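Two proteins, back to back. First:
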Amino acid sequence: MKFVVSSSRLLSHLQAISRAIASKSPMPILDNFLFNLEGQKLTITASDTEVTMITSMDLESTEGEGAIALPSKILLETLKKFPEQPLNFEIDLETLAVNIVTEKGKFSVVGQNGEDFPTLPELNEEKASKLQLPADTLMTGILKTLFATADDELRPVMNGILFEFTPDHMTFVASDSHKLVRYQRLDVKTDNEASFILPKKPAGLLKNVLPKEEGDVAISFDDQNAFFEMENYRLVCRLVEGNYPSYSAVIPQNNPNKVVIDRVDLFNTLGRVSLFASQASNLVKLHLASNEIIVSAQDIDFSISAFEKLSCQYEGEEMEIGFKSSFLVDILENLSSSDIVVELSDPARAAIFVPFDKNDNEDELMLLMPMMINA
């Protein structure tokens, strides 16, 4: 089996799927990429059994067909050191000897039998749901929510992104109990209601490859696995089992106190003032009064403190509310509007953050739980 491939093109495809390989693989074969040559098409697979990434390349010069598993680490590190050039792969499928021949040299490795590589799960057609989603819509939904997922071993459903499909809209939800993000697309509708929880790792893999894709992503899923088909990549992953908590119940509905403020100004002020917050609590206070917000922080142990005033539009009672500054920074970083609206009811209840300038097809809401302010 022989084929010729561009070194930089091969490296680009391998790097995109290599994140699927676990640092401690459950099986030795999974430390490898599976190379499968059929006709002029080279398909490369990386997997950790839970998540599998597949990429394919059309080649001009090939000879023979077959499959072999090649060591991922040495292959990636070697390709990084090559300048752009054609690489000739010469593979003996009986001895599993592999020679990578370049213009100036030859690099030899021993592969493993491709048949030992785990096979992909199959979609249960009786329980399957299928839809098409624009690549940029899927990427935006993941970008908006991935940062809010949890790392909770006791509640694995919180460690992923909830995808909800209805005849009215599509919803992406993520929460770690402190913050919650709900991102809805009103331009994506399905005939039937369906949902699944996408784990954090495959969500991160999609986030990395979707910018390279155009057109639609074909999504199909059953009660155990999800399949994402793109032009150059395919991702198959096991879904998180269990029911996602009722997120709508924690979103406060009546919030009479509303602030309109420049997002970047508040973000920059937080960056300065939070440096003076207690390292233990990371607490910053927002004091809201007529068209003014005072952001303050202090660390009594080191006798340091800071405050900064910002102008804003504020309708409501004078109040002071506290937040963990790193969580508040996360929220502000991931809202896309230049001005934002903060909706509050009282210092003990969650604050709602929404963009001031709304897109007709988007409904974006972020929630942040406050911290207790010691008197």
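And the second protein:
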Amino acid sequence: MSQRTIIKGTGIPLIGNDIDTDRIIPARFLRCVTFDGLGEQVFADDRIALKGEHPFDLPQYQKAKILVVNANFGCGSSREHAPQAIARWGIEAIVGESFAEIFFGNCLTMGIPCVTTSSGNIKSIQNLLHGNPDISMTLDLETLKIQCGHYSSSVKMDSGARSMLTTGKWDTCGLLTKNIDQIKATATKLPYLTW
């Protein structure tokens, strides 16, 4: 199983409230059979409109692991392609003011922590990342702290979701393979299942 306790790396600031899933991954990319290649198309229309000036295009943010967003991030449709595109671009955690519920759930299913903090803390972190894109960030799910250089603040996450990430229970395939002997033992006792 894959526990998520500490995520380290650089960050990428994405300023704006109510960034919906259609902006994260436009509908024309939903026809794919697999999620492969979605990372290249994340924020495709916004990136075209900003002609290379979108944070996801700027060279200083290309290896970022932690996305820092504002309020109601991931609102709109329930498409799981949105967190898939973000993750396939390279993001491993998201810190924001608030998240749309279905987007949060889709991220949790993939093992991507979405933690919240105040708008003041978000603004401070985004400003630090603008001024110094190479600044190191650490998200600690055990202590519920985010560190950005010398700046530190507490973050919030539902205790159930946090437990799923820190114990690895979010990883359902990992749970199955870890408990394969127990599954086989139970299967032999089922009257309707024969091997």
